[in-house]
């Protein structure tokens, strides 16, 4: 919308132009808010952690003592983060027979070609 004066004839165009501009501004503000607000990580207790990973509390205490599971300790209380527990579970993935065979085949090709 180039003209500074708005006449009755071009009023619908001016309103449409302003509506588009407002939509763009809303989108910019929305994107900036989502970028600037880091997602908060809320610690969970051992009962919640045991439900998430499906292990009993004594098993979790053993894993903590052996330093096999990610945890935090403040005083006598243990804390966990759900995203870290899920990553810990994912890191323990065992390969299928098909994946093992594919890896062996790739390794064989590298050595003999």
Summarize the structure.
The protein is mainly α. It has five helices and two strands; from the N terminus they run αααββαα.
Question: Which structural traits does this protein have?
Answer:
5 helices; 113 residues; two-stranded antiparallel ribbon
Give me the secondary-structure topology.
Layout: H1 11-36, H2 46-53, H3 57-65, E1 72-74, E2 77-79, H4 82-91, H5 97-112
Antiparallel strand pairs: 1-2
Structural Rg:
29 Å
Strand order of the largest sheet: 1-2
Helix content: 55-70%
The succession of helices and strands, N to C, reads: HHHEEHH
- Give the uncertain stretches in residue-range form: none
First and last CA, distance:
67 Å
Largest sheet: 2 strands, antiparallel
| % residues in beta strands | 5-15%
Number of strands: 2
Label the overall shape.
flat
State the secondary-structure class: mainly alpha
Count of alpha and pi helical runs: 5
Please tell me about this protein's structure:
The protein is mainly α. The protein has five helices and two strands. A two-stranded antiparallel sheet has the order 1-2. The model has no long low-confidence stretch (mean pLDDT 87).
